[in-house]
Amino acid sequence: MLSSPAPAPAVTAPLREQRARLRETLAAIGDRVGALAGLGADGAAAEMRAIVAALDACLRPHLAWEERTLHPVVDKYACEGPAAFSASMRYEHDIIHRWSAELARRSGGDPRAFARHADRLLGVVLAHFELEEHVLFPILDRTLGREAYRAQVGDPPPASDRRGSS
């Protein structure tokens, strides 16, 4: 019996690897959010500000890169124009930015309210990633070869290393 060769890795493999690193960073940030309840008032206030900074360092460059690079390429192969395919993803970016700003406003306040908002924000981000990975990435995997992917998408920004430390 002849065995078929292993399938070639998806062209989006580098992006998927970067996403795995982002998820690790977000999980570490989530752990920090969960530990807020055990801190005193001064410690919690400082940690909330550090969590906001870590989330910003993790998400802002990634979301900007997606809007500048990834989404236009997906739209080119799916649907361009006023009803661009990535429009819902871009709107989710707006939500993430608004909720991040709200989280920043809550830093220094009630740690329990901050933690609830942070948990909701992390949930939205992870759901956003899942949607992109299961809807957008397959479009690129089906339509682009490695060379075209490298030329049109290139490398995602490096994942932030601001994990568990403040």
Write the layout of secondary structure elements.
Layout: H1 13-34, H2 41-78, H3 87-106, H4 111-143, H5 146-152
Distance between the termini: 57 Å
Q: Can you give the mean pLDDT?
A: 86
Instruction: Domain count, please report it.
Output: 1
> Structural class given helices, strands, pairing?
mainly alpha
Describe the structure.
The chain has one domain (13-152). Helix content is 72%, strand content 0%. It has helices at residues 13-34, 41-78, 87-106, 111-143, 146-152. The longest helix has 38 residues, at 41-78. It is mostly helical. The mean pLDDT is 86.
Task: Please name the defining characteristics of this protein.
single chain; 166 residues; mainly alpha; 5 helices; 72% helix
Give a summary of the structure in a few sentences.
With 166 residues, this protein is an all-alpha fold. It is built from five helices and no strands.
